[in-house]
Design brief:
By secondary structure, the chain is an alpha+beta fold. It is built from twelve helices and 38 strands. Helix 7 runs parallel beside helix 8 and helix 9 packs parallel to helix 10. It binds (2R,3S,4R,5S)-2-(hydroxymethyl)piperidine-3,4,5-triol.
């Protein structure tokens, strides 16, 4: 059922198997936030609102039309500004007279089966209407005519609640929306810390924890894309939270542009949590009848620490965000040409690499950057999506045909949102890039960003890509994006709509991706933005996997993958075994260590097999065979973090698959330590009354022993030691 309304108490109760979320309708007009947390079984607790320190204020001037009425003491679901709430508002408007005051009150509500789509935006979906239920609260500000729908969808079995807001100008004058959060709520017993994923290029998704003090703590991006620096996710947690215990209130935004997620702790310790499009330089003109929809926020509560949070996010994202043919299919083992060849290749060298790839069991060959225009380095040709006849005299079609004839699938790299100033496209359409008149056009990797808010630009990209995909037998596209947005102006919009450019860009990108993924359902699309600079659920509504970082060093990848796994399922996180010493950090690593670091995720290769010894090629062949045997368990199993690289050195991960029948455990020690003779690891998530056979050996372990006494780690001196166990329940 998922949603009920108790008319006596005025409480909407949104519940999942393990979570409750309650909204109190205050004086029949204001939706107040009453509770989000562990499942409760009563919806008659309006008295919860009357915290002793506030009681006097609330009871004295209870009615909204009483001049003494104060919002300051109330926990809102979607607060406004300009009357008596001085915390950050959920939305910000200017009316036609320039005033910013609003007072939106409930005018109607409804409960629906299933979940509505968000116009123009990607969002979670339910396969069948019984999987979700939706509550829509409609508020109206009578002076401006602004209507706001607060939309809540409850996925009961997934323990996930989604939220977004939809604005309509129901008045007679233009309005301007200067900020519009996807969600907002005021938590009475606020969490004490914020956990975030941040970093930079080559150091994505690093876990950081911050104490929440009085005032605002935020994670945000103003780079035009969700960014390396800040993943659009935050977990607000109790002080004592660990991987296995404690309360976590997590938010993940289904959005790929400028965003902000923040917590604002007030003078009473109550915490307002908000997430949505970043309001800086955002402004949306709403003409009478005009509609604006915010992106969706995914809300996950876990009473079982960060591990419990991830095990709610992973299956939800895999089945309610991922779409298309690949959603439930194992992913091919690919070889990417980037670190093998960079820009220097030709038809014959690619084919030779493909032959070697076929020999070791690779299934898909991906031709990376450098195949189009006259691109011999990163200074030209973005936008000119036709093959370089010098490198590929038989064209892309010819190359695909030859690669396919070897029994390999073929994939291709593209970066369609960009244009090089040295390109036919730029010479023909210099106004198609984002720019501001009379200002320089800042370049980043020698490129500019196309204005995807424009229909003709979107059509150009769709046509160019469709032409390639129609003509060539391609099974895979790697979609890259190697710069951030600067000078965000559009030649196609009037001055009073320039504040819309950044969001229109993201909407345009979604429109392009929707068209292409629907037109080419057999193609596997991989998301990439200089590694993991745009790894978010918005993109993952169109892409089946994500290149998590350009850093392929195995030691660095332990942290990057560990962090990414807080939110994203391992099947989304791709990692390639690359050369040793590694090209980014020049650190050498054994093939086995690189294999073990890749194995629990979505494995590929990115090295020149033609430079490898016969022994190394045999090792790679054996790795690929092992991965193919385990791939189904890995890519569709439940992921557990047993030990964190962010808390003192060692990393350990586990996957439990097929209802716990298969248990895979990986342990990593990146650096040698003097005390390591006593290293051990406990595997807490087993059946303590069952027995487990270690696959490939005749050793049998009792579940209780593995859980409570644990395994001892083999003792081996030196850096970069790893060990793997596969247990089968008897
Ligand atoms: C950045 C990507 O992250 C790399 O994997 C590679 O595709 C390069 N771009 C190519 O320019």
């Amino acid at each position: 059922m998922g949603i009920t309304f108790n008319r006596d108490s005025g409480i909407y109760h949104l519940f999942t198997n393990n979570t409750s979320y309650q909204i109190l309708l205050y004086e029949n007009v204001y939706p107040l936030h009453l509770y989000w947390g562990h499942r409760v079984y009563d919806d008659n607790c309006a008295w919860q609102l009357e915290a002793p320190y506030r009681r006097a204020h609330i009871l004295l001037h209870a009615h909204p039309d009483d001049p003494g009425f104060s919002r300051e003491y109330l926990p809102f679901e979607y607060p406004c500004y300009g009357t008596s709430d001085f915390r950050s508002p959920a939305y910000d408007i200017s009316d036609w007279r320039g005033h910013g005051v609003s007072d939106a009150r409930l005018i109607s509500w409804q409960i629906l089966s299933g979940k509505p789509e968000l116009e123009g935006l990607p969002s979670s979906y339910c396969g069948d209407v019984d999987e979700a239920q939706t509550l829509i609260l409609t508020l109206r500000d009578s002076v401006s005519g602004l209507e706001i729908q607060l939309v809540y969808s409850v996925f009961e079995n997934s323990d996930v609640i989604t939220r977004h807001a939809r604005f309509t100008n129901g008045g007679e004058h233009d309005l301007r929306l200067n900020g519009a959060a996807s969600m907002s709520l005021d938590m009475k017993h606020g969490p004490e810390q914020m956990i975030q994923l941040c970093g930079t290029a080559l150091r994505e998704t690093h876990v950081e924890k911050r104490a929440l003090g009085t005032g605002i703590t935020a994670i945000e991006s103003l780079r035009g894309i969700s960014s390396h620096q800040a993943n659009p996710f935050a977990a607000f947690a109790r002080r004592d939270v660990t991987e296995t215990c404690g309360e976590v209130f997590a938010i993940s935004l289904v959005y790929s542009g400028n965003f902000r997620i923040q917590a604002e702790r007030d003078m009473y310790g109550s915490t307002r949590v908000q997430a949505g499009i970043h309001p800086h330089q955002f402004s949306w003109k709403l003409e009478p009848g005009g509609v604006f929809t915010t992106p969706e926020a995914l809300l996950v509560y876990s009473g079982e620490g960060l591990g419990g949070m991830s095990r709610r996010f992973h299956p939800f994202l895999r089945t309610h965000i991922s779409r298309g043919e690949y959603r439930d299919q194992v992913r091919p083992v690919l070889l990417n040409t980037w670190e093998a060849f960079y820009f220097s290749f030709c038809h014959d060298s690619v084919l030779e690499l493909a032959r070697a790839a076929r020999q070791v069991g690779i299934e898909l060959l991906v031709l990376d950057d450098g195949w189009f225009g006259h691109r011999d380095d990163d200074r030209s040709s973005l936008g000119d999506w036709y093959p370089d006849a010098k490198k590929l005299p038989r064209g892309l079609e010819g190359l695909c045909r030859d690669v396919n004839a070897l029994g390999l699938k073929m994939g291709l790299w593209v970066e369609p949102e960009m244009v090089s100033p040295d390109s036919e496209l730029y010479r023909a359409h210099p106004d198609w890039c984002l720019h501001v008149p009379d200002r320089k056009r800042s370049q980043w990797r020698n490129q500019l960003v196309l204005d995807l808010g424009r229909e003709e630009v979107r059509q150009y990209i769709i046509d160019a890509l469709s032409k390639i995909l129609d003509r060539c037998e391609l099974s895979y596209i790697k979609w890259d994006c190697n710069r951030r947005i600067t000078e965000a102006g559009s030649a196609a919009l009037p001055p009073d709509r320039q504040g819309e450019v950044m969001h229109r860009y993201v909407l345009g990108l979604y429109r392009v991706m929707k068209t292409l993924t629907e037109r080419f359902p057999h193609v596997l699309f991989e998301n990439c933005a200089s590694g993991g600079a745009r790894f978010d659920p918005g993109m993952m509504c169109y892409f089946s996997q994500n290149w998590a970082s350009d850093n392929t060093d195995a030691v660095s990848r332990l942290s990057i993958q560990h962090g990414a796994s807080l939110v994203y399922p391992p099947i989304w996180i791709t990692f390639h075994i690359s050369a040793s010493p590694n090209h980014q950090l020049e650190r050498p690593s054994s093939l086995q260590f690189r294999e073990h670091v890749c194995q629990p995720f979505n494995l590929g290769y990115e090295l020149n097999l033609l430079n490898m010894s016969p022994e190394e090629l045999e090792q790679i062949k054996a790795q690929i065979q092992r991965y193919k045997q385990l791939r189904n368990l890995i890519q569709f199993g439940d992921f557990y973090r047993l030990s964190s690289p962010f808390e003192g050195g060692d990393t350990a991960w586990m996957i439990s698959a097929q209802e716990g029948r298969h248990i895979l455990v990986w342990y990593y020690k990146p650096y040698a330590r003097p005390e390591e003779a006593y290293l051990g690891i406990r595997i807490p998530y087993l059946d303590e009354h069952a027995r487990y056979r270690q696959v490939g050996t005749d050793r049998i372990y009792h579940g209780s022993i593995l859980m409570h006494m644990g395994l001892t780690i083999d003792w081996k001196n030196g850096d970069q030691f790893s060990q793997f166990w596969h247990f089968e329940k008897i």
